[in-house]
Amino acid sequence: MEKLQISLIGVPIDFGQMRRGVDMGPSAIRYAGAIERLEAIGHTVIDEGDIHVPNAAKLEVHPKLRNLGAVVEACSQLSMLVNKAVKQKQFPLILGGDHSIAIGTLSGLAQHYKNLGVIWYDAHADMNTADTSPSGNIHGMPLAVAMGMGHEKLTSIGGDAAKIKPENLVIIGARSVDAGERALIKEKGIKVYSMHEVDRLGMTAVMEDALQYLKDRKVDGLHLSLDLDGLDPMYTPGVGTPVPGGITYRESHLAMEILQESNMLTSAEFVEVNPVLDTKNATANVAVELMGSLLGESLV
Ligand SMILES: NC(=[NH2+])NCCC[C@H](N)C(=O)O
Ligand SMILES: [Mn+2]
Ligand SMILES: [Mn+2]
């Protein structure tokens, strides 16, 4: 296995939604031993620390985009850091924070990867715009923004062009999809392995199929965006928008191991860990264990 230079970037933001506390996610994941775990595999970790997240109350507010100004600021900074890491041939590993940060991550990656593949491991499709969102929460919008849809202040971070192509995106674990998102998935023909497919085909087939699909698309990089609410809340209770009937702990490790074996992965992010809602840091612990499987830990 290739030993990586991992650029670890924390994004302590909870402005993309309403449950306070997810801004403590990066600390919780660090306390759960992320760095030690990655170093034990043989990787080098360059810890960039946490980016500065400005006070939302002092920045632009928008009736349908909660804390717009703060999210734009944080994502712009993150985009630059991710871009810098990729330029230096490092592997960006981003710790959230709520899922709005993926706007910054994908923007930074898109400066380099012109045909980026994305695996979105999540109970949700995160593909709303201000017009379709039931909540006004930007953490439910990053995929729409990355495809070039949504408020100009969000879509223009790191350049106006769309950051990902709809046909290079694979969603795994979906089970709570809003009407507007469903319409967009249909319209764009986006590949979704919902819980139905996970149950029916099993995780091995889902992952092998997903990776073959992305290989056929000739992607030049592969990003994993893992929302801890993709797993069933019995394993990861510390998330702001839990949805029952999720992916199991074992299926998730298997998915990470298959991703590792593929040798395709070029970046990853772990989001929505909310210590305030967690029990004994269980969710951060799962995040770190999954990082281990994803980045080459072996059982024997
Ligand atoms: N990253 C997340 N946990 N997203 C949850 C989004 C929930 C819902 N679809 C919304 O737009 O508000
Ligand atoms: Mn989610
Ligand atoms: Mn999400």
UniProtKB/TrEMBL annotation:
InterPro entries, per the entry: Arginase, Ureohydrolase, Ureohydrolase_dom_sf, Ureohydrolase_Mn_BS
Q: What is its EC number?
A: 3.5.3.1
Q: Which SUPFAM superfamilies match?
A: Arginase/deacetylase
Q: For this protein, what does the record note about how its cofactor is bound?
A: Binds 2 manganese ions per subunit.
Q: Which domain of life is it from?
A: Bacteria
According to UniProt, this protein's pathway is: Nitrogen metabolism; urea cycle; L-ornithine and urea from L-arginine: step 1/1
- A single BP term in Gene Ontology: urea cycle
* Gene Ontology cellular-component annotations: cytoplasm
Annotated Mn(2+) 1 binding lies at 99, 122, 227, 229
In terms of Pfam families, this protein maps to: Arginase
Q: Which cofactors, by name? A: Mn(2+)
Substrates-to-products reaction catalysed: L-arginine + H2O = urea + L-ornithine
Entry keyword set: Arginine metabolism, Hydrolase, Manganese, Metal-binding
GO MF terms on file? Answer: arginase activity; manganese ion binding
Q: Where does Mn(2+) 2 bind?
A: 124, 126
Q: Would I find Hydrolase among this entry's keywords?
A: yes
The record's annotation in NCBIfam families points to: rocF_arginase (TIGR01229)
Which family is it part of? Answer: Belongs to the arginase family.
Record protein name field: Arginase
Species the sequence originates in: Kurthia sibirica
**Taxonomy of the source species:** Bacteria, Bacillati, Bacillota, Bacilli, Bacillales
Gene coding for it: rocF
